[in-house]
Design a protein that fits this description.
The complex is a heterodimer of chains A (444) and B (314). Chain A has 444 residues and is an alpha/beta fold. An eight-stranded parallel β-sheet of chain A has the order 8-9-10-11-12-15-16-17. Chain B has two domains: 140 residues, 3-Layer(aba) Sandwich (Rossmann fold), CATH 3.40.50.1370; 151 residues, Rossmann fold (3-Layer(aba) Sandwich), CATH 3.40.50. In chain B, the strands form two sheets. A five-stranded parallel β-sheet of chain B has the order 7-6-5-8-9. A four-stranded parallel β-sheet of chain B has the order 2-1-3-4, sandwiched between helices. In chain B, strand 5, helix 6 and strand 6 form a beta-alpha-beta unit. Chain B is globular, with a radius of gyration of 20 Å. The N terminus of chain B is likely disordered. The chains are: A alpha/beta (444), B alpha/beta (314).
């Protein structure tokens, strides 16, 4: 039985105080609500959700007319760079950016310095001194120092508050190690998040392999480097009923095929996430060797993006996760092949989802909200979040699905500037982010 | 927390006069450069670049390209300085951009750069206010080579349009091949690429319209007007399905294979040639070989490139 520790800002509201979100349209896929509703928050919990004008007597009111009121968004994949890499980002700056992006909960990745591979470090992350502005749930390393060889103490990490294990940044490549990882996952219920990449196939590669990489004279990564690992993992998972395998930042059509097969076989829980940049950009969008377009897995082909769009709509994809990966300027403004992999993403996720998925691809708003809320909550069994059911935590994201705005990276709350979306016209903007009943972000 | 605007990477306005590659050039620009090269005479040069400082920045070894740019610059009255990565602060970890800023501060009017990473010249050109000339960036492009090759072909053939060109060798790793394909296809040449799968992936056909790929040297050479032979690095073959002996037996340009081409077909090679590997001694020295002429033409071509870069094209 997991203990949720102090990093969940569950009592932000003054005891007894209440906030009424009035006049908005509630979309709460976990409770199958999609209607004009007022929401009352009290003592850090959702006290009531009722048709308009039925609730009265709140201390504070928030006017949500014309806006969507959703459960607070959950980002399963964020790099907050603490401990040890605070020149790129801190927990404070990263979670501030998260709040600006409408995220009330983030799961932080363990590939820091040192790597989060002990219960002590998991506990350290959750101390209030870290300065998290939203709820932060640590993901711990699956192997010691993420070297891929010796498993960490999953149960100990779980007890300390880790919501999953991963060696993200790297794959768990050894089959025997993956087998053992999934076995313990099945026993403990702790999800394993796999960065699916056969690194023996991707040495010195800087982008997707295809016509663009050939033209640019860059070594490319075949999609098979990702999908072959997904296929293998899905197969291994079938041997451990109840194992939870989550594919991180899925980018390739063939990987989706394997995930679909795994979900159909249904002995294990197979889930996957997709980043906004993978449903938005292509490898051919890389111009002038701008390393703001360089990440791992890389931007792929039109066929891969098409498959991702289909899978987002049809339920094969469980969550949108940003893989927010801040890097300093001196790590990105250099020769493309040498620049570090990764881009930021917390503040552009909703805008890209509304613009690309809802307006262009006609994906219903409810499905998009599900990808940001109920979907991710299910992946890591985050109880009481990703929903506005009575009694759940008062984490709420209020956004204007019609607001047109321009993303200006100079105004980003992240410490880093590595984004390909600077200057992009987007539709869909966060108006307010509420964590534990307290407003932690107000859009302008 | 706001980061001040001055710390953002400049969103690339490329310095005027830069030559980063062939792909982005219009046919008219290419013709202009070739015509200008025709007017350059390294033996009786005009001092078009007197007072100008040409900085040669070479992160990779080079004989031809380096000396040819140097002779070209000096012929026109420019001052040249060579900076090699070894023996410079690059060994202390100084970045490419900082090296560029330093050379600019020292007074460079143009930087000619050869670098092992694709896009290095673009990075410099996006941040400097002096022109950058690409002398070879990783596997990407080698524009001056493509220009001197076009110049050489046109000294012997009336036109590039419809010309059958066979490019044989390690095309995957070759910046010479990429630049040549871009240039020749802009002028309507009929290009056939030839090599084993590991050195010539199918994706190569997407580089330009109507490219043919064959795994058989005989097929590529039959009826060719130009046989462009590329270097193959022994070390690269080491990890592959195809052995050195296999490569030689299937792809080496021999006199017998050359006879399949047209009688007056040109034999070209960007150098350095490895006699006995990608071509035989006889082929390297045969009357159809213009390999040495390519080098000679490289000086006039690079004179034109430098003059154009510094706005002195007359």
């Amino acid at each position: 039985m997991k203990r949720n520790k102090s990093a969940e800002i569950s009592l932000n509201q003054r005891k007894g105080s209440s906030l009424l979100i009035k006049g908005g349209h509630v979309i709460d896929p976990a409770s199958t609500v999609n209607a004009p509703m007022d929401v009352l928050l009290r003592d850090g919990r959702v006290a009531e959700v009722a048709p308009p004008n039925k609730i009265s007597g709140a201390d504070e009111k928030l006017d949500a007319r014309g806006l969507i009121v959703a459960p607070g968004f959950i980002d399963l994949h964020v790099h907050l760079r603490e401990p040890g890499q605070t020149y790129k980002e801190t927990i404070a700056t990263g979670t501030t950016a998260a709040a600006a992006g409408g995220f009330t909960s983030v799961c932080c990745m363990p590939n820091t310095s040192p790597i989060i591979d002990t219960p002590e470090l998991v506990e350290w992350l959750q101390e209030p001194e870290r300065g998290a502005v939203v709820n932060m749930f640590p993901i711990a390393a699956a192997t010691h120092a993420s070297k891929g060889a010796v498993l960490t103490d999953f149960r100990g990490l779980q007890r300390a508050g880790a919501v999953a294990v991963t060696d993200d940044g790297k794959p768990i490549l050894d089959e025997a190690v993956m087998r053992e990882t999934l076995r313990i996952s099945a026993e403990s219920g702790l999800p394993v998040i796999q960065h699916a990449e056969d690194t023996r196939m991707t040495e010195n590669a800087a982008m997707n392999e295809g016509p663009t990489s050939f033209r640019l004279g860059l070594r490319g990564m075949k999609t098979a480097a990702e999908s072959s690992v997904v296929e293998r993992d899905v197969q291994i998972a079938q041997q451990f009923p109840g194992a939870r395998l989550h594919v991180a930042h899925l980018s390739a059509a063939d990987s989706l095929k394997a995930v679909r097969r795994g979900k159909r076989a249904s002995r294990a829980h197979i889930t996957c996430e997709v980043t906004p940049h993978h449903f938005t950009l292509l490898d051919s969008d890389i111009v002038d060797y701008d390393a703001n377009f360089k990440m791992n897995p890389p931007l792929r082909s039109e066929a891969d993006r098409e498959a991702i769009l289909v899978a987002l709509a049809d339920g094969t994809v469980d969550a949108i996760a940003t893989d927010h990966a801040p890097h300093a300027i001196h790590e990105k403004v250099m020769e493309f092949e040498r620049a570090l992999f990764g881009i930021t993403g917390l503040e552009t996720a909703l805008g890209l989802a509304i613009t690309r998925l809802h307006r262009e691809q006609k994906v219903p708003l409810a499905r998009i909200v599900e990808l940001f809320t109920a979907g991710p909550a299910r992946v890591i069994s985050l109880n009481g979040r990703g929903t506005l059911a009575r009694g759940s935590y008062a984490d709420v994201t209020i956004f204007d699905p019609k607001k047109r705005w321009k993303f200006d990276v100079s105004k980003s709350h992240s410490k880093s500037r590595n984004t390909p979306f600077d200057g992009w016209q987007l539709t869909g903007k966060v108006v307010a982010t509420i964590v534990g009943g307290k407003i932690v972000y107000r859009g302008d | 927390m706001q980061v001040p605007a001055s710390q953002y990477p400049a969103k690339g306005k490329i310095a005027r006069g830069s030559l980063l590659g062939i792909e982005q050039l219009e046919a008219a620009d290419i013709l202009g450069l070739l015509k200008l090269a025709r007017r350059m005479n390294p033996q009786r040069p005009r001092p078009l670049l007197r007072g100008k400082r040409v900085l040669l920045l070479f992160y990779e070894p080079s004989t031809r390209t380096r000396t040819s740019f140097e002779v070209a610059a000096k012929s026109m009255g420019a001052m040249t300085t060579l900076v090699l990565s070894s023996g410079s602060s690059i060994e202390k970890g100084e970045s490419l951009l900082d090296t560029g800023y330093t050379l600019r501060a020292v007074g460079a009017d143009v930087i000619v750069v050869r670098h092992p990473h694709a896009g290095a010249p673009h990075l410099m050109a996006a941040h400097l206010d002096i022109p950058v000339v690409n002398a070879g960036d990783g596997m990407h492009e080698h524009p001056s080579q493509a220009l001197l090759d076009a110049y050489t072909i046109l000294r012997h053939k009336k036109t590039l349009k419809g010309l059958q060109v066979a490019i044989v060798g390690d095309i995957y790793h070759s910046r010479v091949a990429r630049s040549a394909v871009h240039l020749l296809s802009k002028f309507g040449a009929r290009i056939t690429l030839c090599g084993p799968p590991e050195l010539l992936p199918e994706a190569a056909t997407t580089l330009a319209p109507a490219l043919r790929v064959t795994r058989h040297a005989e097929e590529a050479l039959r009826g060719a007007d130009v046989a462009m032979v590329l270097r193959v690095q022994k070390e690269r073959l080491a990890g592959m399905q195809i052995s050195l002996q296999d490569y030689i037996s299937r792809y080496q340009l021999t006199m017998a294979r050359l006879k399949l081409a047209k009688k007056d077909a040109l034999v070209m090679h960007p150098g350095p040639i490895i006699r006995g590997l990608e071509l035989t001694w006889e082929v390297a020295d045969c009357p159809q070989s213009v390999i040495v002429e390519e080098v000679r033409n490289g000086v006039a071509t690079r004179m034109a490139i430098l003059a154009k870069a510094l706005g002195k094209a007359r």
